[in-house]
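Hi V.,

Quick status before I head out on leave. The structure for the redesign project is tokenized and pasted below; the design run finished overnight.
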């Protein structure tokens, strides 16, 4: 079994504890899945991560996604107040 030491937590772990990355020499990332998911959630709750999320929310792409949702049947229904939905059917 292939063992690799995580660059973050310094624990030796088996290779399938590491995400695949074809750009790395051994085909796996240098930090284990546990560490990279921790880093990911830390980033999302950090100021920088929140700013990035805000930027995305204002972006053209997210507006497109929202517009598409609003014009869909599901989105149209979501915009109608619950007490008025009864009259539709
Ligand atoms: Zn680790």
């Amino acid at each position: 079994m292939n063992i690799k030491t995580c660059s973050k937590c310094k624990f030796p772990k088996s290779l399938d504890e590491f995400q695949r990355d074809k750009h790395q020499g051994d085909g796996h990332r240098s930090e284990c899945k546990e560490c990279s998911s921790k880093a990911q959630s830390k980033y999302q709750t950090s100021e920088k991560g929140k700013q990035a999320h805000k930027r995305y929310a204002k972006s053209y792409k997210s507006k497109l996604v929202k517009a598409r949702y609003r014009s869909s049947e599901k989105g149209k229904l979501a915009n109608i107040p619950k007490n008025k939905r009864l009259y539709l059917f």
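Above is the designed sequence. The first helix runs from residue 33 to 45.

G. will cover questions while I'm gone.

Best,
W.
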